[in-house]
Design goal:
The protein has about 400 residues and is of the alpha/beta class. Helix content is about 40%, strand content about 15%. A hairpin with a 6-residue loop joins β8 and β9. About 35% of the residues are buried.
Length: about 400
């Protein structure tokens, strides 16, 4: 392999690393054990996986930039070349670390990663992939070797720092339930929280909003299109007509959340079977486009009907629906932030059951406990208030959990 064949990849890597801003780090950055030999970072498109890898290169290899190389599997170079060519050249020319973006776009990627790990014992590899990425140990036993991480979108806590420079510590759910008044008092003394919370619901989940403020919703629609037309086919065995049905299903559900539609009517509209329809819904959940809520007695899988359906996060509601419903926005925010750190299920009474223990009802500032009457360990998540009292907790505070 001649150097000139790879020079474009090295130039692209150097340019991207040089342009990367390191003033803000996602919550996961400090949790990743970057010294491990094999690292996987999964997450939805647009949440900052690429930036996090580039930050690691910039901060850890400033003295020896030639030791680390960033490559993306959607680079046209790979249409006529293999990953093996890059690895061999980089390794034999002193490279010690390889950062691979969008690994799911490379055929038989699991086998390739295993071979790199086994055949280049001094090479450290970190790679990113879709939130749908599956580690199939029947094809390549990566479990013993791999440090596996998942990156969620910006929490409201991170948004406060990213947007307004307000640093707030991560709070556990148990700490929040016990000390929410004290925590809220400390934060609200530093900024007007409610206007920032409104901004977060509109565009704060995806860090790229800083670059695309004026056209954020259009950019997010393009992200959704890329997920369905590029990421899903790269991971799932799926036909083009099914991709079209996925797009239509998403748009139909976006207009009807959180109430589960009459599924037989939905399948008839999509001209699909019940089993295929439920499989499609599962794909949309794994692609971080939907949140499917089921009872505590069963986990959702493709043969079971979910009890409630939400879009994955509030930003998607603004991008995919004309008039987002306020109540649905509140519930979508709650399940999105809680599902990142806890198990959330559909209870017989109330809106959400968290970790099979805590019961929550979500609503506006005049919400009462009427619907939770007699329920043990129950709380109200209240919107439009800065501070709460007792078992009435401000809704925005559930964005402090990661």
């Amino acid at each position: 392999m001649e150097e000139t064949s790879l020079s474009g990849l090295y130039r692209t890597s150097a340019r991207l690393v040089g342009q990367t801003n390191t003033s803000f780090h996602r919550y996961l950055y400090s949790q990743v054990k970057w010294t491990n030999r094999l690292i996987a970072i999964k997450g939805a498109r647009g949440v900052g996986k690429t930036t996090m890898m580039l930050q690691s290169i910039k901060e850890r290899f400033s003295g020896h930039p030639e030791h680390a190389l960033y490559i993306s599997m959607d680079n046209l170079w790979f249409a006529n070349h293999t990953l093996t060519e890059v690895v061999e050249y980089h390794y034999t020319h002193g490279g010690t670390h390889l950062f691979i973006d969008e690994v799911h776009k490379y055929p038989s990627w699991q086998t390739m990663i295993k071979n790199i790990y086994d055949e280049y014992p001094d090479l450290h590899v970190a790679f990113t992939g879709s939130s749908m990425l599956k580690i199939d140990n029947s094809k390549a036993d990566l479990s013993r070797r791999l440090s596996d991480y998942t990156l969620h979108g910006l929490s409201f806590r991170e948004f406060l720092n990213f947007e307004a420079g307000i640093e707030a510590p991560v709070v556990s759910l148990e700490e929040l339930l016990k000390d929410h008044v004290k925590i809220a008092t400390q934060l609200t003394s530093r900024a007007k929280i409610l206007p920032l919370f409104e901004l977060y619901l509109e565009h704060g989940y995806y860090p790229f909003y800083k670059e695309e403020m004026d056209d954020f919703n259009e950019r997010l629609k393009k992200v959704v299109y890329a997920v369905l037309n590029e990421d899903v086919p790269a991971i799932e065995e799926i036909t083009y007509p099914t991709i079209q049905k996925l797009q239509r299903m998403l748009m139909i559900l976006a207009e009807r959340v959180p109430q589960t539609p009459k599924m037989n009517e939905l399948y008839a509209i999509l001209e699909t079977t019940r089993e295929q329809g439920m499989k499609m819904m599962g794909v949309l959940q794994r692609a971080a486009l939907l949140q499917l809520l089921s009872t505590e007695t069963k986990e959702f899988h493709h043969l079971l009907k979910p009890d409630k359906i939400y879009l994955h996060n509030p930003n998607l509601m603004y991008a995919l629906t004309e008039r987002p419903d306020k109540g649905t926005l509140r519930e979508t925010f709650f399940i999105n932030q809680l599902a990142a750190v806890a198990e959330v299920s559909y209870p017989r009474k109330g809106d959400f059951l968290v970790n099979h223990k805590h019961l929550f009802e979500v609503g506006g500032k005049n919400k009462t406990f009427d619907q939770l009457k007699g329920a043990h360990d129950s709380y109200l998540a209240i919107d439009d208030v800065e501070t709460g009292f007792g078992d009435r907790i401000p809704l925005w505070m559930f964005g402090l959990l990661y």
